[in-house]
Write a structure and sequence with these properties.
The chain is of the alpha/beta class and about 475 residues long. The chain is built from 14 helices and 11 strands. The strands form 2 sheets. The protein has a 7-stranded mixed β-sheet with strand order 1-7-6-5-4-2-3, sandwiched between helices. A 4-stranded antiparallel β-sheet has the order 8-9-11-10.
Length: about 475
């Protein structure tokens, strides 16, 4: 029996994808082309007539491949980017084939129910569930939009308590909202404040300690100097050091002040699933909202952000749109997904998360988190033993912060940046740079399920070789 055009096309796509994935262990991690060559290969005049889909696939792979970063591979340590668990990747392909619009229960009952199921699983995994407590969930593009969603819910909640309906009345004339963030808060939190009209420069910045943890004593002093609606933004897993803010003390302050406590847990929230790292999240369950990414430690394809709140009514009120009879909304009988996120039309992101959770299981997730943290310590030990290398953070999670000590202290930042560029060009692994306490540093993030001891050993050797070459 001859194959249908769909079978032929998708079989070719599967073969091309499999070839890429099978080649990841040996593939140079960085890119092998500049913008000009990529633009020449991919660009040109749009053809007048459409091309054959098989030809398009082959052209796309040949033209784009030199510009594809092997971020899905085992030696990519930049930006806290993981790979994709096989079950999640396959489910994501099905998600594209099914082409469900995740707006309503009516447009995809399967997706709506999967979102409910996954929300309950995540609340349980993160230790947020409790008898009589309902945790709401939304599936967005990433942690940036998870912050936006959570802070919109927070804005609704604190202003409603002050007698102001912000969705109807807007912010003009509203009671001012005080926002408090740690000095090491991720920039996506400030951007979320910008998006929702509170202003990124209006937040009160609370100093942090030597590891980047918010100083709870200074938070208490700052918040007690004023009154009125307040939101506190804390952090689980600093992007530089992996440090966790002191949630117990911060939650006590929030409770005394009647403030909404939001936690940025883009990757750090997942520490709760591993027994040896769960202590880092103590008190996290007392927050009002949480944001995390599926495309980080859960190893699902991009894009996949998750927002959770302990205030479903505020969450839904902040997201729901009025009217529009044509939507055939389900009322209280079924969950309509669009009522929990800023988007209407969107892909069914929860399906890949569902598959990943089933693929790992509770034990597998705990092992993954513990292994990545152990590998981070292995990398630390390799690098710390070398002359001219300093580890700047307590490696409590999966982040390693490294400084190259120059032979001339006056050129430290130039040496560090030169080392980063050399590592990226050499291609054994990929890591990025950051600025920590006014000095440039190498930042290593480990969260890919494919990464092994051998990958760490090979990468550490390559890093040290480049360091020595630059320092000569």
């Amino acid at each position: 029996m001859s194959k249908s055009p769909n079978q032929v096309l998708l079989a070719r796509a599967a073969q091309l994808a499999s070839d890429f994935l099978d080649g990841l262990p040996a593939r140079p991690v960085g890119v092998r082309a500049d913008r000009a060559s990529l633009a020449e290969a991919l660009g040109g005049r749009l053809p007048e007539k459409g091309r054959d889909p098989l030809a398009i696939l082959d052209h796309l792979v040949a033209a784009a491949d030199p510009g594809i970063v092997a971020s899905a591979g085992p030696r990519y340590f930049g930006h806290v980017i993981s790979g994709a668990h096989p079950a999640a990747l396959a489910a994501d392909w099905l998600t594209a084939a099914w082409d469900q619009n995740a707006v309503l229960y009516a447009t995809s009952p399967a997706n709506a129910v999967i979102e409910e199921v996954v929300g309950k699983w995540l609340a349980d995994l993160f230790g947020l569930a409790a008898p009589g407590r309902e945790i709401s969930v939304g599936f967005v593009s990433g942690c940036q939009m998870a912050h936006v969603t959570a802070l919109l819910a927070a804005r609704h909640h604190v202003l409603m308590k002050a007698g102001w309906d912000v969705e109807r009345q807007g912010l003009f004339g509203a009671p001012p909202i005080r926002v408090f963030c740690g000095a090491e808060a991720h920039g996506s939190v400030a951007t979320a404040l910008q998006y929702i009209g509170l202003g990124r420069d209006q937040a009160v910045i609370i100093p942090s300690d030597e590891q980047g943890r918010m100083r709870a004593d200074l938070l208490a002093r700052a918040i007690e100097q004023g009154q009125g609606p307040a939101i506190i933004c804390a952090q689980a897993g600093g992007v530089n050091t992996g440090a966790f803010d002191p949630f117990v003390e911060i939650a006590d302050i929030a409770a005394r002040q009647g403030a909404w406590l939001h936690i940025d847990g883009a990757f750090g929230l997942w520490a709760a699933v591993a027994s040896e790292h769960r202590h880092l999240t103590a008190g996290m369950e007392r927050a009002d909202s949480w944001a995390t990414d599926g495309h980080k430690w859960l190893n699902v394809p991009h894009d996949s952000g998750i927002v959770l709140t302990a205030h479903p009514a505020a969450h839904r009120a902040a997201m729901s749109m009025p009217g529009e009879a044509y939507l055939h909304k389900s009322g209280e009988t079924h969950r309509d997904p669009y009522q929990w996120v800023p988007e209407m039309s969107r892909r069914a992101r929860a399906i890949a998360i569902y598959a990943a959770l089933l693929g790992f299981g509770r034990d597998g997730l705990a092992e993954l988190v513990a292994r990545c943290c152990r590998l981070a310590r292995r990398m630390r030990d390799h690098l710390a033993a070398a002359e001219g290398v300093s580890i700047l953070n307590d490696v409590v999670l999966n982040q390693v912060l490294v400084q190259v000590t120059p032979r001339d202290d006056d050129i430290g930042d130039q040496i560090t940046d030169a080392v980063i560029a050399a590592i990226q060009a050499e291609g054994t692994c990929w890591l990025g740079g950051t600025t920590w306490r006014g000095r440039r540093a190498l930042r290593i993030s480990i969260c890919n399920y494919r990464t092994t001891d051998a990958d760490i050993d090979r990468s550490a050797a390559a890093i040290l070789e480049q360091i020595e070459g630059i320092r000569r």
